[in-house]
Amino acid sequence: MKMKKLSAFLMAAIMVLSLAACGGENKAGNNSGSANSSSGTSAELPVLKVAVMPFLNSLPIKYMVDNKLDEANGFKIETVYFANGGAMNEALAAEQWEVGTLSAAAVNSLAIYGAYCIADIGHSEGGLYTLANADSPIAQVKGSNPSYPDIYGDAETVKGAVIATNTGTISHLNVNKWLEVLGLTPEDVEIVSMDFPAAYQALKTGNCDIAALNPPTSYTAESEGYVVTSSLSTLDVPQFDSIIVSNKTYNEKRDELVKYTKAFFQACDALQADPDMAAQLLYDWYTENGSETTLEACATEIETRPFVTSEEAKGISIGESVQITGEFWVSQQLLVEDKFPEIAKHVDDTIVKEALGF
Known about the structure:
Oligomer: single chain
Number of domains: 2
CATH topology of the largest domain: D-Maltodextrin-Binding Protein, domain 2
Number of strands: 10
CATH superfamily of the largest domain: Periplasmic binding protein-like II
Structural class: alpha/beta
């Protein structure tokens, strides 16, 4: 009798361990601590591996996950975290993510890795700054090129400068365009690659002359008295953050991509409709991912870098922004010229049209 009771106990214990193991498997593969995907009843939904970064352009993804817009639209998001767009591109060839949001780095995604641009989702010009100390000679010269009256510096003051930025990103594009306007080339300066917080620290400690920064770091630097020597806005360079899809996912998961795009614009509409909520969510997102900022700086970013609403999306020519960036990169020898035509071949507006019904 005791043996029977012991056997029954052991069988029950084995069943509990087995169920626990199954529960652990459902949670596996979620690499983001900030935009965790839920499990349970949604386990049978098709999954998209979505790249996120510690920037504004991932906020709609966080909103989708937090509010379960993925499940409501019939798919499941599994987030994969990357520090920047360059790292996302390196992981693209290894199929570590299926869909993500990129700006300037999308050039390489399309031209080199065969990914597709399927929607433009956010205005990314705002807050893309090059900055100098207020007492820098560069900050004493304004409007040296009459066509760009709000930029600072000239060929004499900027030549030989050490410029810290995250290379391969839209901030790098800002640097190159600024140099071009001043009659210089990247060979005339020393560009040092580092992440944005480190670049800002280099500026503060005098280890560089210019820091080219991305929000929220750029807004923090501006609020602390550093002079904005150029921005994509003052340089008249239009830019969008875009939804980028790996080649394999584009060819094999169209239905899921339509659902994802629909959910993404639902998130954009909600964020644009409530800027206070969006600013708080952005502050939380930055804080969770280790960026120092303020709620005021986040509110400024929400205001100056608006998301594209579902209605606005109907009037946007998708891919125009990445074409402009690609052309500039070719001129600066950042992209091999024979790869440039691949950009236009990897833009598709039919998915967003199906998702939004236009």
